[in-house]
Amino acid sequence: MSHIHLSMDSYFYRYAHKYEALYHALYDAILSGRIYKGEKLPSSRKLAEYYEISRGTVNQVYEMLIAEGVLETIKGSGTYVSFTFSSSSTLKKDLLPVSLSEVGEKMKRISSISRPDVNQPIHFHIGLSDMDYFPYKQWRRSLRHEMGKMEDEIKFSNMNSQKFYSLTTEIAKHLRHYHGLDCKNEQIVLVEDTAQSLFMLLQLLINVKEDSVVMEDPGYLGWEKVVLATGAQLKRLCVDSDGMQFKELDAKLAIVNADCHFPTGVALSLERKKRMLQWADKQEAFIIDAQYGVELCYDEKSKNALMMLDQSSRVIMTGTFSLTMMSSMKLGYIVFPEALIDIANRMKHLFDACERETFEQRALAHFMNTGDYSRHLNHMQRIYHHKKALFSQLFQMYCSQWFKVLPNNSATFILTKWNGDTASYDEAMKICEQEGTSWTDANLIYFERKESYASFSFAHLNEQSMEKGLIRLAFVLGKINIKTEGVL
After folding, report:
1. What sections of 358-421 are H helices per DSSP?
2. Contact assessment for residue 379 and residue 133, using Cβ atoms and an 8 Å cutoff
3. Dihedrals φ, ψ of 189, to 5°?
4. Axis-axis angle for helices 136-156, 359-369 (nearest 10)
5. Nearest Cα to 106, choosing from 201, 7, 185, 224?
6. Which residues pair with residue 73 across a beta bridge?
């Protein structure tokens, strides 16, 4: 692996010696499962450069973990994780049945979203970013800036005297710049991720036993599972080149990707946005506009943000930093309309009584305040635009016999349709995964499967890996000898 993300500043603060900090940071990451068995660690030189410590310190820590059986060295290859935490050694006890609430029982019956095997040499699964271009130097500067302030606050027991950058304020500035949305920081509530925010909003906005929820088809599978877990009735509306084909339904909530639909990347047309707002006003319903990577997937139609057009306090916006910053950053936000500011403040008090932003949140606020976040977004827009053009060209060259590339405005992946029937697609996907090459099965996000769709991400791959991976994919597909419309 080329990068590992360790919260070293907190470990440097807790431990007097740097080797102790690195030892515990690595050990905790492995023990918690964030670094898996079999993963290759960076070389001592790269790790030392990244965390600004000596190479001798890194070698000392590696040797300590090797001696404990946590790591192993393979000559000519590198250092790998050899330890895996297993609970099989503990004594098993007979577990008594536990009675849960109605929502809890529904959760038990909903299948979890399977995680793809991202330990393959080259894979095309969506959800990862290109960390080779991440501004690590600027991010470390923001981390150190806020760590220094927090040390002074703790040392002098003066938690409120120093000015610090408020993340909600910086998010409000960001929304004004990228979406034309003028909101106050009092309207913004910080959350861990969009799934948690959706679960909270469902409890807040609808009577789950009585009301229905409208979603896009195709649409994000995670949101569908959250809705079903609450017990609400789910209705799906198809998506075309102008977004959700909206029609008036007997429902109390609609969940949309108004500015960058997943997985097509299309934006909801202005006419449909207005029609949806009229429906919400008439029905006394709410609309959750789930923003995901809109800054990277920008369409001219998205200049008219849905919340900006709302005159009746019916639209609630959610967003996340996991795509634009790093996938390991579980940090998102909810933007409430002004009429619901009181509810927003009550949520803040309920979930964060002390109302102090965390270290990571404060560092991100500083990162945004300095302009580093905007510069990073602008840079990544250019990078992904170039990579998508190249990947589309290479995909057409090597894989057009089996897949047809569909129109797609997403910045980090392409959407394709399998040229054969569903049975041949399922067989091909299974064999390819066994052969060490895989993609994201897009059929999971279609309510009714009539054909077979696949998503191929290029965001985390460099140009050489793109071509190498597609050549490997074409080689495996060629060996399978499955008949498709594009293969003789």
Report:
1. 359-369, 372-399
2. yes
3. -120, 130
4. 130
5. 224
6. 79
* β-pair type (78-81, 440-441): unpaired
In three-state secondary structure terms, 247 is: coil
Alpha-helix runs per DSSP H in 285-421: 306-309, 341-351, 359-369, 372-399
* Cα–Cα distance measured from residue 481 to residue 427, given in angstroms and rounded to the nearest whole number: 11
Architecture of the domain whose range is 375-480: Alpha-Beta Complex (3.90)
Length of the chain: 488
* AA letter at 308: M
Tokens (6 digits) for 303: 């200049």
Q: Domain spanning 157-369 has what CATH number?
A: 3.40.640.10
> In the chain, what are the domain boundaries?
1-86, 157-369, 375-480
The one-digit pLDDT tens for each residue of the chain (488 residues) are 446 778 787 787 677 788 888 988 898 888 877 888 888 899 999 888 888 899 989 998 998 888 888 899 888 888 999 876 554 444 444 555 677 777 677 676 666 655 555 556 788 998 888 888 999 999 999 998 888 877 666 555 554 434 445 899 999 999 988 888 889 888 998 888 778 788 888 888 888 778 899 999 888 888 888 888 888 888 999 998 888 998 888 899 999 988 888 888 888 888 999 999 999 999 999 999 988 777 787 555 445 678 999 999 999 999 989 888 887 788 889 999 999 988 888 877 776 655 567 888 889 999 999 999 999 999 999 999 999 999 999 999 999 999 999 988 888 999 999 999 888 999 999 999 888 889 999 888 777 767 899 999 999 999 999 999 999 999 999 988 665 554 43
CATH class of 1-86: mainly alpha
Residues 6 or more apart whose CB falls under 8 angstroms from that of 237 comprise 214, 215, 216, 217, 244, 245, 246, 247, 249
68-76: long-range contacts, CB 8 A cutoff, minimum separation 24: 70/27, 70/30, 71/41
